[in-house]
Amino acid sequence: MENQSPPPVRVRVFVSGLVQGVGYRYSTMNQAKYLRLGGWVRNLADGRVEAVFEGNKQAVETMIDWCRRGPTGAAVSELVVADEEPEGDRTFELRRSKNK
Q1: Domains along the chain?
Q2: Among this protein's residues, is 30 annotated catalytic?
Q3: Which of 68, 74, 83, 95 is deepest in the core (most CB within 10 A)?
């Protein structure tokens, strides 16, 4: 059991505020790739951004902290975080907006 890496963690976040039309999704994707996280990000029809991050616990926590601020031009008013079971995501992608 030497050098065994800790198990990955997975979270789903919902970001409210001024988070659409300010490059939030692209900046999220770049930051997640920099942190070597898997998952995805998309806009929601209600104006929020939804994202899933999976990987190293510390990297996921760093990503959550980043989401509280977002890129320049964003104004985050609320961040909801929910833990999920890891699914093995290794890459990060932009997803199409979810319309209602």
Answers
A1: 9-86 (3.30.70.100)
A2: no
A3: 74
**Catalytic pick from 3, 10, 36, 43?**
43
Q: What is the pLDDT of residues 14-38, one digit of tens each?
A: 999 999 999 999 999 999 999 999 9
Residue 59: which of 26, 89, 79 has the closest Cα?
89
Residue 100 pLDDT greater than 60, yes or no: no
Which one is catalytic: 12, 25, 48, 99?
A: 25
Question: Is 25 labeled as catalytic in the residue annotation?
Answer: yes
Among residues 95, 28, 11, 9, the alpha carbon closest in space to that of 68 is found at 28
